[in-house]
Amino acid sequence: MEVRFEQHYDSGAADLWDAVTDPERLARWFAPVEGRFGVGEAFTICFDDGDVPECRVIECVAPQRFSFEWPHASGATVVTAEVRPDGDGSVLVLTHARLGRSQAAGYAAGWDAYLRLLTDHLAGREPQNWWEHFGAAQKAYAERLG
């Protein structure tokens, strides 16, 4: 199963690319990351709930596409971020593939909440409460995805 988000931002493509690939900026809206982002290299996502997956970069075509494997007990999933210019702004297409049916609603809700934080980050606003949005979104995605 795959979850997919496509969102327009008022920010330019270079700024959006930087926001989704620069460790310092990722820490502001997603989570701290440690490691390297070259193809075949590994990086760790340090979530505040103690989950610390070690991911492996499978593709990086700067400044347009970045993909990585995210390990799980049931096998690796794949996250892809694509950035493209769109008028005065840019578009981010984020997909998380190879999800099991039982995982899809939770990951969809998580990405939904994180992308709201990305919107706030790019607009220079204080971030929303991730947990609050995640809870409401998870229920909605669970109903929609069955």
UniProtKB/TrEMBL annotation:
Species annotation: Luteipulveratus mongoliensis
Q: Which family does it belong to?
A: Belongs to the AHA1 family.
Looking up Pfam families in the UniProt record yields: AHSA1 (PF08327)
The record's listing under SUPFAM superfamilies reads: Bet v1-like
Q: What is the lineage of its organism?
A: Bacteria, Bacillati, Actinomycetota, Actinomycetes, Micrococcales
Task: Identify the residues that the record assigns to the Activator of Hsp90 ATPase homologue 1/2-like C-terminal domain, covering every copy.
Answer: 13-122
**What is the protein name stated in its UniProt record?**
Activator of Hsp90 ATPase homologue 1/2-like C-terminal domain-containing protein
